[in-house]
Amino acid sequence: MPFDLIQGAAVIGQSGGPTAVINQSLVGVVEALRGADAITGILGARNGVRGMIEGRFVDLSACSSETLEQVAITPSAALGSSRDKPDRAYCEKIFEVFEQRNVRYFFYIGGNDSSDTCRIINELSDDAGYELRCFHIPKTIDNDLVGNDHTPGYPSAARFVAKAFMGDNLDNASLPGIKIDIVMGRHAGFLTAASALARQRDDDGPHLIYCPERPFDPERFIADIDRVYSSKGRCLVAVSEGIANAEGEFISAMMSGAGEKDAHGNVQLSGSGALGDWLANLVKIELTPKGGKPPRVRADTFGYLQRCYPDASDIDQAEARAAGAKAAEVAMSGDKDGSIAIQRISSHPYKSALKVLKLTDVAAKTKHMPDEFITDCGTNVTDKFIEYAKPLVGALPAVGRV
Amino acid sequence: MPFDLIQGAAVIGQSGGPTAVINQSLVGVVEALRGADAITGILGARNGVRGMIEGRFVDLSACSSETLEQVAITPSAALGSSRDKPDRAYCEKIFEVFEQRNVRYFFYIGGNDSSDTCRIINELSDDAGYELRCFHIPKTIDNDLVGNDHTPGYPSAARFVAKAFMGDNLDNASLPGIKIDIVMGRHAGFLTAASALARQRDDDGPHLIYCPERPFDPERFIADIDRVYSSKGRCLVAVSEGIANAEGEFISAMMSGAGEKDAHGNVQLSGSGALGDWLANLVKIELTPKGGKPPRVRADTFGYLQRCYPDASDIDQAEARAAGAKAAEVAMSGDKDGSIAIQRISSHPYKSALKVLKLTDVAAKTKHMPDEFITDCGTNVTDKFIEYAKPLVGALPAVGRV
Lengths: 402, 402
Known about the structure:
Two copies of one chain form a homodimer. Chain A is an alpha/beta fold. Chain A is about 40% helix and about 15% strand. Chain A has 14 helices and eleven strands.
C-alpha cells in the first residue's frame, strides 16, 4: 500500500428520503472497494445509523455482481433508510460496534441532514481517538446541497415531475379548469421549477410556478391565477410544498397547525394533500363570480412517487454510480474524509466531473435556487434554469396535436 | 358500394376523462375512414358534443400520417373532451349542425356516460328522421364498461398504478410506517386492484386493498392495518377513491359534505387529497398507544397522473387503435350503430379480438369487479385477477434486493 491505509472493514449506510438512484451510489462504493488491500469486509448497515448501533449489517462482499447490478437500477434505499440524528451518546454506541468489527471506513449516502450526521461521526471519532475515515456521498431530490451543481436523485425526480406536468397539461387542456399540483422540496424550488421542462409550446402549462425562494402571498396567488384563467380559459399551477410567507413560516404549517416534526426538527410537509386542497378551496371561493358557478378547481399532490417512481434519468444513474465509486477511490487513495460533489463542465454537450469537498463545507447547509433561475415576476423560471435542468432529465416524449 | 351507404361527413368526438391512449382510437378511426367512398370529410369535434353544437371542428383528413402518428402516442384527448350530457334540445342543435355539414357518421370515444350520450343521439336522430350512424368506441381507466373484457385506457392506468406501488413499496420498506395510497375508480375496483401487480415477493405491499365492491367499515380498516403493522412493522394500503359504506354512500362524500357534481350527477372524487388525509388521520389517532408516540402515517392520492402519465402499455396502445379502426370498418360495412368491445381469446399467450355490441347493452351500465377477483377476506385480490390484469400492463421493472 502506497499510503498508511489502515486495514479494516467498510460500512455503507443510506439515509434520509430515498431516491430512484441511491442504490447506484451504494453499488458504486461496493464495486470500487472490492479487492482493495485495506478492506477486510464490506458491510451494509440496515436503516443507516440505526442499524449501526443495533448491529444489523449485511455482508455486501458476498453479493454477486449480477445481484448488485439489479439492486443498482432499483429505486429506494436497498439497505433501508433512517431519519435518526446521532448525538454523542448515539455515536459512542456506533464506535463500540465499529470497534468490535474493526470498521475503519464509513460511507454515508444522503442529503444535508445526512452529511451533518457524517460530519458529527467524523468529529466524534476524532475526539474518541478512534481512527475512522468518513465520506459523504450526496443524494437528495431537493437538489439543495451546497457546492454541488446538482445532486444525484434530483435528475430522476425532475424527470418524473416534467413527465407528470406534460401529461397533466394535456389533461387540463382537454378538460379546461384550474389545476394546482404540489411538488416536493422543503426549502429549495429546483424540483418545482422542473415542471417548466414539460412545456413544448407557448400555451403549455405550468402557467405559474411558486418556489419557496419567493415569499408566498395568497392574494397575489389568486390574482395571478385569475389573470391566466381569464385569458386562457385554463390554468395549470406548480406549487412547492415548501412555500412560506414573508416571515418564513410554511403555509402548510400555518394552515394545519403545528405539524409532526422529525429528529432534525423538520416539519412534515409530504404525505398529505392538505396544502393543495387548501389552495384549491381558496381559489374556488375567491374566483366564484357573485351568484355564479364556481370554476373547476382541482389539486393533486405528487407525493412520494416523485422520489421512487421506477423511471430514472440515465445521467442520474451514471452520476450516482460514479459518486459512490469516487468516494471509495478517494478513501483508498488515503484521504481521511470528505463529501463528493458533482461539478458541471459543460451543458452542450452535457459533461460533469466529481470533486471532494470538506464535510464542514456541505453539512447541514442548504442551497437555494439562484436568483438568475427565477423570473422577475417571481412566478416563472428563466431560460438559464431550463438550460441547467434540461440535460439532466433525459429525453422527454414529444407531443402531437391536431 | 356494396351496401346502401349514405354519403356524408364523419364526425369524431372524445368525451369524459381522458386516457393515455384515447388518441390511438381517434387515429384508428381516421386512418380506417381515409379513402372510403362514402366519406366526404373527416371532422374532429373540439370538446366532444360541446364542439358539435358550437360548430368547432378540425379537418382531420388534412392531417398528415406523421402528425397523426405523433398524436396517437400522445396522452389525453387531442380534440379536447367534454362532460356535457345532451338532452333532446341539445341534440336538436347537434343535428342542425350535422345537417348543414351533411354529417352522417358519428364516432364517440368515451366511457359509460359517453356511450349513453351516443345512445341518446342515436335514438333522437331516429326520432328526428335524420339518418345518422352512431358508433361508440370504449375508453375508461375505470374499466367498468359491461360486455368488455377490459377497456382501452385501463391497461395504461393499471401500469402506472403498478409501477407507482412498486416504487412506493420500496420507499415504505426503506422508511417503515403506514402508507395509504388513494387510487381512482368511482364504482369499480379494477384500478385499485392493479396495485397488486407491484408485488414480487410475499412481503411486498400493498398489504391491504380496498375496492368499492366491498362495503367500507372504518373500524375494520383500523383493525386490518393494526394487524399488518404489528406483524410486519409497516403497512402499505391501496384504497379506491370510490369506497362506500354498507348503505352505498361514498366515504369521501360523507366526510366532506355534499361535493361538487357534474352533469351526469357524479360527485367529485378526484382532484383532492381529503379522503387519504382523513383516513391517515383516523389511523394515526386510533393506533397511537396511550401516552405513546403516534405511528408514522402518510397518505398520497395518485390523482390525474393515473390517466395521463406518458408511459402507456403497448397492448393498450394497439387495442385502442384497433377499436377505433374497427368502428370505422363496421360503419363502412353498412352497420348502423353499435359499441365496440374487447373480448379476450387467451391469457397465455395474451390474445384479444373485437366485437360489436348494441349501444343499449353498454350505455350507462357499470361493470364491477367479479367476486372471483376479490379474496374472501375482502382486502386482497385473487390469482385470477392477477392472471387477468398482468398481461395487459406490459413488462414491469424487476426489483433487486440485498
